[in-house]
Amino acid sequence: MTRRQWIHTSGMAALASAAQPLWADPDSRFDILIKNGEVRDAGRGFRQNADVGIKDGKVAAIETSIPAERGIDVVNAEGMYVTPGLVDLHTHVYHSLGFGIEADPLAATSGVTTWVDAGSFSHNQAGAFRKFIVEPAQSRIFGYVYLYPVTRNPDEDPVQYVRRNMRRTGEVVVENRDILIGVKFQVGSNMNGRWSLDFLKIARELCDKYELPLMAHVSFAPPETDQVMELLRAGDVLTHCFNTHAIGILDDAGKIRSSVKEARSRGVLFDVGHGAGSFNFEIARKALDQGFLPDSISTDVYTASINGPVYDMPTTLTKMQYLGMSLDDILVRATINPAKVVNRIPGMGTLAVGGPADIALLEIEDGDFQLIDSQRNTVNVAKRIVSRLTICRGRRVVAPV
Ligand SMILES: [Zn+2]
């Protein structure tokens, strides 16, 4: 034991040192042993060539060298980054609207260990979300409930209808706090007609009453951006932050709006939410040039975006790399930052002894790759981020057969 170099740094140190090592018995073997990779946990500034031992769903050891015999399943990660599993804060993995995708097959190839469904279901479908989506999955799945139930009678006044469903929406999130995070709402004239601002006010009232965070999709005005910002609070997420639509973070001169800066300073979070229509290279570049980095990088993957322009999380991360963000800046926004929004699993979004063994093996691949934004602008890059292996709860995530 004395020559073993235990690697503990801030954040997880107390958790790791409070107990005996999880593999104190020298005859015990790790379920999975990842050798020769570079452990890169950007959230706590940890970067070191080290081997990672996984046992019983947890990270049991991070050491400079662990003999291969100590592993039952030994993975050679030479040339790869061993990072916390990616957390995708805006996805659609429920199927009621016909646009949800299967989480696990994409998890297996993309390094995503945690999916957050951004309101593909309403309160009366939460039970089905739990039973048929969350429980069978190898990866972790959480969700925001959609405030505007899809089962609405078209003859009923929409504002009355949403108000009538407000209480139940709040109650369902509270009753299912282990898997539900808050309320998703689409703000935009194209989504809710002339009632959009009314609905947003109802969403605000609901989230205040039940103390829930709101995720707001933004698209076409009205309402105006400033009106939307005014109604967002600390912990709320504005998704589609680099869209080209009238409700957007930039003013007509291409500058970050002061209402957006104020919202950020009081704790409103800005999420990429790429999707089929909401990510534009030029808008993102203008924002980044002004120091406005997103708080989280997410895909908004669904049936209409999975075959392009989104494809997957590594492709979305590669786009942010193309725009000039450093790998660590990117990883923070694809691991610890969205994990803090989920805030349900201790240690999620980090890679440290004692924490959950949710891990991605990422590699930078050289070649000639085309990237496409939502307006079909294309660029070519010589490097892209790819995922080689996804481990969730201490097991390899495999595509179901
Ligand atoms: Zn979406």
Secondary structure topology:
Blueprint: H1 13-17, E1 30-41, E2 46-55, E3 58-63, E4 71-76, E5 81-84, E6 86-91, H2 103-110, E7 112-122, H3 126-134, E8 140-146, H4 158-175, E9 180-187, H5 189-192, H6 196-210, E10 214-218, H7 225-230, E11 237-239, H8 258-265, E12 269-271, H9 281-289, H10 313-322, H11 327-334, H12 336-342, E13 359-372, E14 378-392, E15 395-396
Parallel strand pairs: 1-4, 1-5, 6-7, 7-8, 8-9, 9-10, 10-11, 11-12
Antiparallel strand pairs: 1-2, 2-3, 5-13, 13-14, 14-15
Bound molecules: zinc ion.
Quickly list its features.
12 helices, globular, TIM Barrel, seven-stranded parallel β-sheet, 401 residues, eight-stranded mixed β-sheet, binds zinc ion, 2 domains, Urease, subunit C, domain 1, alpha/beta
What overall geometry do the principal axes of the alpha carbons give? globular
- Tell me the structural class: alpha/beta
Q: What oligomeric state do the depicted chains represent?
A: single chain
Supply Rg.
21 Å
CATH top level assignment of the largest domain: Alpha Beta
> Could you give the distance between the termini?
43 Å
The CATH topology of the largest domain is given as TIM Barrel
How large is the share of residues in beta strands? 25-35%
Q: Order of helices and strands, N to C? A: HEEEEEEHEHEHEHHEHEHEHHHHEEE
Average pLDDT level: 91
The amount of helix comes to 25-40%
Cofactors and ligands: zinc ion
Strand segment count: 15
Poorly predicted parts:
1-19
Largest sheet: 8 strands, mixed
CATH homologous superfamily classification of the largest domain: Metal-dependent hydrolases
Number of helices: 12
So, CATH architecture of the largest domain? Alpha-Beta Barrel
